[in-house]
Fold these 4 entries.
Entry 1:
Amino acid sequence: MIVVGKENLIRSEINAGFNSQLLAESNRLQKQGKTVIWVAKEREIIGIISVADTVRLEAKKMINQLKSLGIESIVMLTGDNKKTADTVAQHLGINIVYSELLPEDKLTVIKRLQQENKSVAMVGDGINDAPAISLATVGIAMGGAGSDVALESADIVLMADRLEKLVEAISLGRRANRIIRQNITFAIGFIFLLLVANFTGNINMPLGVLGHEGSTVLVTLSGLRLLK
């Protein structure tokens, strides 16, 4: 029987001795940000395999841009081992890391953050991310490489598989929010002026209709600023 998996799995599945030389090599590889997979045959460790996801070149720049937008905390949720996760997080400038997580563990972390009265945006693309994306205040899926389940669970889908689109989406959302607030304030204020003018007898019906419809046109034109 051949068993392949992470160190914790091998320790729980078989009663085999771990070679000190392989353990040292495993630690070295993990410090380089690689995930180590152990291979055992007939209750004997016969080797290790290291794999690693390539960190996108634009990832660190994107993290810095999110911080510049005033994002209070950026959290990394991963199923990788702690040493690998810490290495990647340190490279990207992320100071809050949860590692060795199963899909249900990610849900627990998000629930904990929400209980602290925090709005949580979850960004992911895999099947394992789908439950957390669905639970988050705002679920964001990477459309280019995302699984169908993740896309269906998300509130926002970034159609281009480019991390910088996340920053653009946040900026666009904030700009839309500002314009909506401006338009609502203007519309309510103008209607209030029309009411005052009506009750004081300073406006007639044609002017009232013209003013009301004119304010609607102005609000619509203001909203079109988002097309930029």
Note: The first strand starts at residue 2 and ends at 5.
Entry 2:
Amino acid sequence: MQIENIPLLIFDCDGVLVDSEPLSIAVLIEMLTHLGVNISEEDAYDRFLGRSVTSMISTLWNDYGVETDIDFLDHMRSLLYERFRTDLKPVTGVGQAIDSLQCRRCVASSSQPERIRFSLGLTGLLDKLEPHIFSATMVKNGKPAPDLFLYAADTMQANPADCIVVEDSPAGIIAAKSAGMTVLAFTGASHARFPAFRQKIELLQPHAVFDDMDDLVHLVDQFTKSGHATSERPMRS
């Protein structure tokens, strides 16, 4: 039985809670360079940001002819975790924002559960969000399909119309809108510096675009009070 009219805030992880995307993309580019595949940073963001491992594997094979076996994935994960241990930081202000929120919340990320918890543990955010952590590995289709967000809402006994998703990627925004949820696009992480990236976010018409976590509590309160925020027109904070 679903809980009626009780809002649920759904956080993406990479690029929303932790500023991990530049580290992840750098490791991927490094791995591909060793295989003789040259890809720009901006193109890598365009093709892989917010996607699941399954989607990444498919894109690497279909677009670059790169076959990713277990050794490739294990090596990439090992390199990434090394970078995380030394360089990973939480998104500025996100811890304080989470502490100030009055609504229920969870995490729904394209990353694997182990990586999500590893990232949140390193950045001191895990205790604020456990045990409500959902991964694309739990559903058939990852973002941009709505499956993960719908699964999180169903598990948390929330109606999709009462869910507010905080996303940073085009794939995540598409998924949230397809799920019938309100989506707040966060553009304050390091990877959002490309003008083409920001333009793509705007064209997808999220319900709000913001680049400072200090604005999150206000936005959540605004859309919660509006009732079914999915009917509201897009705006910029």
Note: Residues 114 and 135 are 9 Å apart (CA to CA).
Entry 3:
Amino acid sequence: MKKLLILMFMLTSLSQADDESAKVVYDLTTSSVAKFEKNILKGIAVNKTHYENSLRELEVAVVIHGGAYRFFVKNLDKTIFKKDKKLQKVYGDLKKRIAIMSDTYEVEFLMCGAAMKRNKLEKKDIVEFVKIVPNSTIGLINKQNEGFAYIPVRD
């Protein structure tokens, strides 16, 4: 009887382990440095900490399109975004912080491949940790079908 109770407890604990994680996908289209910093760089860190303090995991994905391409280029001066004065001032710091989001916080970055040509970008222009998806809609559909909650970050 004791063994049966222990086995039932273990099975119940394992089935609840799946409920201990949360998932979110950010639909990132903003070109605003302030919004990007507040919602992505600071917001994700705060949310990750909250879930960790609750002994839960938070899986984060960010689908990049619209004005947000500018935050994920290797060299700003070789892109159409080089005239963005606000971005120029903070780009070095932003690049480091974005890399930390990928490495330390395990954020998955997915970029819409459909509009890269319109932004005069090729895969070689994008930071290495960003994955290219056929388009933003497919990226968002896939993540939402995997159980990710949807949060837009727009201008």
Note: DSSP finds four helices and five strands in the chain.
Entry 4:
Amino acid sequence: MSQEKMLEDIIREVLKSMSQAPGAAAPAQTAQAVATKGLKPDQDYPLSAKRPELIKTPTGKTLSDITLEKVLSGDVVPKDVSIAPETLRMQAEIADGVGRTQFANNLRRAAELTAIPDARILEIYNALRPYRSTKQELLAIAEEMETKYNAKINAAFVIEAAEVYERRNRLRAE
């Protein structure tokens, strides 16, 4: 079996199990959460066009604060144009509200990842490649993600990957 095929099989298995990941709300519960926040998927999507007042950058700027003039003057910095976890969570609620549960779960995982520095995400990505880590190293990464960054859904993903790699003999020898 080629490495690409093996990796595809592992990813499919992990993704299949992630549909029951902790923290993923059932569609009926999520639809209620959307209604509670006042979001109506059929009326509020896309948020940037229909509810721009809800969107803030991680630095607290609104969409109307981001202008070419402010970029050129240096009043808008790169962190001002990155997405905030709250925006990703709102988009997840809207996706759930229209039955796009898998996409909603992806957005929730992305929201968690915004707390992790880019360099660390790249290290984790490399550690998740077959034969790169021991099971203990992957479990330590999961622990770090859960405790240091409160990335519980992603931590569950890493734990599942460690278990799949163990079953398929894809861990680095200790």
Note: Residues 3-18 form the longest helix (16 residues).
